[in-house]
Write a structure and sequence with these properties.
GO terms for molecular function: glutamate-1-semialdehyde 2,1-aminomutase activity; pyridoxal phosphate binding; transaminase activity. By secondary structure, this protein is α/β, with parallel strands linked by helices. It is built from 15 helices and 16 strands. It has two domains: 191 residues, Aspartate Aminotransferase, domain 1 (Alpha-Beta Complex), CATH 3.90.1150.10; 250 residues, Type I PLP-dependent aspartate aminotransferase-like (Major domain) (Aspartate Aminotransferase, domain 2), CATH 3.40.640. Bound molecules: pyridoxal-5'-phosphate.
């Protein structure tokens, strides 16, 4: 019979782990008190308050696959800044590039030779012919949507239930019995979702066809496999259907590879031969410096450049970009990441370790008969508290268990293993070792043994 996790026992373990955390982290406790005096919510980004700890863990430093807290404890970092540090903390090549370019100046509103090299490297790696920069994946998605609206003259953005693409207003939507509402926890922000959004379940070709039939959808914004509600892989044939249906409806397709870049050096797009109109990648692309890129077809680039060309405007904004976008420092670091860090050899190492992690977690699940499952997308693993791989966001959401998640994550953190706070994602970087992976597997096993005892 499948083992069940008793909520009362989980509460008890959570309380014990909170106590343990308080004993281990006196310096973080002091800094948390200090932080509350000047930062709203005590942290510079409210997400940093969302770890399952009684107060935030303050970082002292980080190198490779390791984070050290301000009390001197070391952690195997499998969160990796929720993907921003997917190529490791303070990677030697990235560090040297930052130092080298710091001496040449950061930003001047002038293009650099590094920018040309970045364009060429992105073209070769991902296949799309023309590129632009942004400062975050959120912004890149906003610009991609704007471009699709210009190209089609339509307003609606279609997303998949359970998605996350950054703080992009139109995407913070749920379908409540046929009405589009802001998703729980996000304010409406004056958005008329019925006019500008559409939402369907992933992997449902009929629902997609129906949603596109009105001819009013500017673009589908999709991760090629969902990663923000656990991993939801695309079923066989879904991407072909998605591309055919969007083309037939005159709808543009944006593939957001911000997380699925874990698949391989060319992302899911190259590994599965996808053919999007726009391709978005952020987070790790400049080794942790805020940056993102979006690639586009010649046709989409024509739309963008027609619209933004200088004769067209009294203003040079055009709704795209930002003062620090494409700055010289970022481009130099991004070039280094593309040339020296995101290499096939680095991916071979990361994917090998992720396979080891997958096998270890699978063994723990089977031995304790937990009725969970683990999925891997290249260098990224994810375990979900349900026996089978979800087919869509709705199924993945039903497998969530916030109490179990919080207790597990705090237990692991107290044993020197960091997982991203939002779900059970386990990510490898080039500096991760087999011993790091095994430490996570052993701590997971210990957790399960403790809760089931
Ligand atoms: C798929 C995807 N796209 C975009 C974003 C937004 O990235 P950022 O917060 O760096 O803007 C995220 C963030 O988690 C994401 O998962």
């Amino acid at each position: 019979m499948t083992a069940t996790m008793d909520p009362a026992r989980l509460e008890q373990v959570l309380a014990e782990e909170e106590e343990r955390y308080r004993r281990r982290t006196p310096r973080s406790a002091e800094l948390a008190v200090e932080g509350r005096r000047s930062l709203a919510g005590g942290v510079p980004l409210h997400w940093m308050g969302n770890w399952p700890t009684p107060y935030p863990l303050f970082m002292g430093g980080a190198a490779g696959a390791q984070v050290t807290d301000v009390d001197g404890h070391e952690y195997v970092d499998l969160c990796l800044g929720d993907t921003g540090a997917m190529f490791g903390h303070a990677h030697p090549a990235v560090r040297e590039a930052m130092i080298r370019h710091a001496r040449r100046g950061a930003t001047a509103m002038l293009p650099t030779a590094d920018g040309n090299a970045v364009g060429r490297l992105l073209q070769e790696r991902f296949g799309l012919p023309l590129w632009q920069l942004a400062t975050s994946a959120t912004d890149a998605n906003r610009f991609a949507i704007r471009m699709c609206r210009l190209a089609t003259g339509r307003d609606k953005v279609l997303v998949f239930a359970g998605k996350y693409h950054g703080s992009v207003d139109e995407t913070h939507v749920v379908d409540v019995n046929g009405r589009l509402e802001p998703q729980p926890g996000v304010s409406r922000n004056a958005v008329d979702f019925d006019r500008v959004s559409a939402v369907v379940e992933f992997n449902d070709v009929d629902a997609l066809e129906k949603a596109l039939a009105g001819g009013d959808v500017a673009c589908v914004l999709a991760e090629p496999a969902m990663t923000n509600i656990g991993i939801v892989p695309a079923v066989d044939g879904y991407h072909d259907a998605l591309r055919e249906l969007t083309r037939a409806a005159g709808t543009k397709l944006i593939i957001d590879e911000t997380h699925t870049i874990s698949t391989g050096p060319g992302g899911y797009t190259r590994a599965h031969d996808l053919d999007p109109d726009v391709f978005v990648l952020g987070k790790a692309i400049a080794g942790g410096i805020p940056a993102a890129v979006y690639g586009m077809t010649e046709e989409m680039a024509g739309t963008l450049t027609d619209y933004t060309r200088k004769e067209n405007h009294g203003s040079s904004h055009g709704g795209f970009g930002g003062t620090l976008v494409g700055n010289a420092l970022t481009l130099h670091v991004m070039r280094t990441v593309l040339e020296e860090v995101m290499t096939p050899a680095a991916y071979d190492h990361m994917i090998g370790l992720a396979s080891r992690c997958e096998a270890g977690v699978q063994e723990v699940i089977a031995r304790h008969d937990l009725g969970w499952h683990v999925t891997r997308l290249g260098a990224r693993c994810e375990y979900l508290f349900a026996p089978s791989v979800p087919r869509n966001g709705g199924e993945a959401k039903a497998a969530r268990n916030p109490l179990l998640n919080a207790t597990l994550h705090l237990f692991l953190l107290n044993r020197g293993v960091l997982l991203t706070p939002f779900h059970s994602m386990v990510l490898m970087c080039p500096a991760t070792t087999a011993a790091d992976v095994d430490r996570h597997t052993a701590a997971l096993d210990e957790f399960v043994g403790t809760v089931l005892a």
